[in-house]
Structure formats: structure tokens, C-alpha cells
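Hey, quick one: can you model this chain's 3D structure?
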Amino acid sequence: MSEKINTYYKYTLFGILGLGIILRLGLLLKNPSFFYDETSLALNLINRSYSELFLGLDYEQSAPPIFLVLSKFFLSITDNSNSYLRDIFLRILPFIAGIAVLPAFYYFISDLTKNRFVQVISLFLITFNPLTINYCAQFKQYSLELLFGIMILHCFYKIIFKNKFKNYSIILISLAPWFSFSSFFIIVSSLIILLKKNRNIFLKVLCPYIISCGLLYYTSLKNVFSTTYSDLAGSWAGSYSYLELQHPLRVLIRLGELFTYYKPASIILGGMVTAAIIVFWVTEKSLLKKVFLFLPILLTAGASVLRIYPVSARLILFLLPIIIIFISVYCCRYSKLIPLIFCVISFIFSFLYLPAPTATSHREALDYLESNLTPSDKILIDSDFNTYTYYAANKVLNADLVQIPYVCSVSKWQEPCKEFISNLPPGSYYLILPSAVTDSIIVNGKIIDKGNFSRSTVIKFQK
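Sure thing. Here's the predicted structure for all 463 residues.
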């Protein structure tokens, strides 16, 4: 009987991993157009040399230097004239990291608990999660930061709770900041515990880590803080990405957004995550383990309240493994219902948001434009100008560009945009929008042609 159960267990694991990989591979091959942040980051790679990637990026972008260097290498080995292949090559590193997350987390959970039901639930929750799937196929660093978060947690767990210290742990911990800025919260939390548990190993780990962080600061972070950070901080503040004590509901929203992009549902899920954290504190007897798992969350929250680090879902994705541990390992001690509810919700949303809602079809729109544009036409570009610049780089588009006011996009192409279009001088125009719009947006003009794509619209009209 035990052999039969063991077989079912293995098949279940392989089934989860297999379907998870198929989902991620399918999204990679679907290769949706880059959206604003992706194209802004890609333009930095195109316009800068390898050494200039350490100097702080343009367009309110920031990413770990090794991620940038490796991504530029992938960009250099592809055909820049083929937008589809260029996009897919830039997504290779996030894809590899996103796939590696699954076995890495399984091995960590297997060390943490021998309960096979919990192992299956944990693997299911990280495999069928909208964020882990979508960031696996987006040109951003978040899946790499998630991978390093898991590896560092597992590494310190072995050192602190199993007295298994290997010299390669020093290399992993020291190099982590070059691949993941968010690794700071996990490493500092674990070092605080290690200081009390084993001072000899603490010093072995601390010294090379400080040297590595010092080199990272003087070669990269110093430039980021002096050039880009103030713009990023302003952008984060404008998007309500910082925690504020007078807005406690924001905590629930941010926790819930780790499982869904749908804000009303995130409040409910955030409440359930909070309940799982309470269960963790009640059921876990080891104070050391409580500190080990909760301190990274506490440090991240503290940095956010101090307006040092934002807590948007993508930027706290590295905390997802800890949240899943609270849900699967500790909630199962009382009831299997909450973990199963999270599994069902995660599974539904993982299919519902493929790709993520921020995706556009600008690549296809620019291909359409290149085939139909005439020299007398003018092109109306919305606030996502970087996406146009990125996809127009390898095309011949001889036309004047007209920037659409930002108010048009924030008003969702209603009255302000209609007024802007109605006041345009006579001529032939192509309007490119990152969304589906009705023909009523064209005021005092005649629509000549229209190209509809899944997430973009191109309208040609005559004034």
C-alpha cells in the first residue's frame, strides 16, 4: 500500500511540475509584446555598453547588474531586425529562473517538512501562481530574485537548523546582491539569527558578504542612488507602493496581490494570509524559527513605512515562499481547507491572467503600421512612447510623430482625448493605442482604416 501511495505522490509531483512548465513555455512562445517597463529596460540595454549598465538606468528603471549584463549578452546574440526573436531572447533569463524556482522550492519544502500533503500543496501554490507564471515570461528581474530568495532561505535554514554548513554557501550569499537587490532582507534577517546561534559561521559569512556589498555599492548602487533612485521613489509614492500606518488596509491588499491581480479579491486573500500568519505564530513552538521566517517580512514592511523600499507585488515576490509556508505548513495543522482554497483560487487566476493585464500588442501594431504607412501620414503616440521607440527601432517609418497628452490615457480615452483629436489640424493620421477603443473617439474626422489586435488598436483617420 505504501508503495502505491509513493507512486501516486511521485506522479502528482511530476504532473504539477509538468503542467507548470507547459504553462510557462506556452506563454514564452506566445511571446506577447513588451509593455512600458519592459521596453524601457530593453532600451537601456540597446543604448548602453556593458560597463554603462552599472551607472544607473534611464526611464525610471533599476535592475541588478548581473541580470542586466546577462540580458545584454542574450540581446547581442539575436537578430535585432526580428522583433519577435529579440523579445523572446530577452525573456530567456527570466524564463530559466522561473522554471528553476519550482524544483528549488520543492527541495526547500522537503527539508522543512516530511508531510507529503504539505509538500504537494506548497509546490502547487508556487507553480500555479499568476505572478510566478507571468514574470517567468516578462523581461524583468523578479523571477530571478524569487529564485535567489528561495536558495538563500534554504541555505540559511540548513546552516541554522540542521548545522549543515558548506563553503559554497559563502559564495552564494556573497554573490546574491549582484543578482537580487531584495536578497538583502533575507540575508540580514538570517545573519541576525546566525549571530546568536553560531558566531564562527556568522563571521565566515559576514566578512565576504560585506566586501561583496561594498563592491556592489561603489560599482553600481552608488550611481543608482545618485541618478535613478529619486525618480523611482517618486513613482512608487505616486502608485501607493509604500505602506503607511494610517492605511492598514494597504497591508491586506499587498499580501493578497501575491495571488491575484484583481484588487477586490486581493483584500479577501490578504485577510486569509494574515490569518495564516497568526496561525503560524500560535502553532510554531520554536522562537528561532518564528524569527527566521517572519523577520524578512518585518524588515521589508519597516523599509516600506520608512519609504525606502516599495511593496508592490512584483517587488515582494521574493517573500512568496515564506507566505506559502505559512499557508501550507502551518494552516494544515488546524485544517486543510484554507490551503485548498488558495490552491483553487491560484489555479483559476493563473489561467485567467495569461498574459498579465499590462501586456500590449504594440509589436503587431507597428508591423501593421510599417505595411500601411504613407509619407503624408502623421502618427499619434500615447504616453507609452518608449514602446513605440523600441519596436520602431528596426523599421522604416517615415512620418511625423505627435505626442498625445498624458491625460488621454488616464481618462481612458474619453472626453480629453476626443477634444485633443477634434482640435488637430487637417491631415491624415494613425492613432496607436494600447487598448481597444470605440470609433467615437474620432471627432470631426473620417475613419479610413482600422487594425484591431488583442491588446492594441490602430486607427487611420482623415481630418
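One thing worth noting: The first helix runs from residue 2 to 30.
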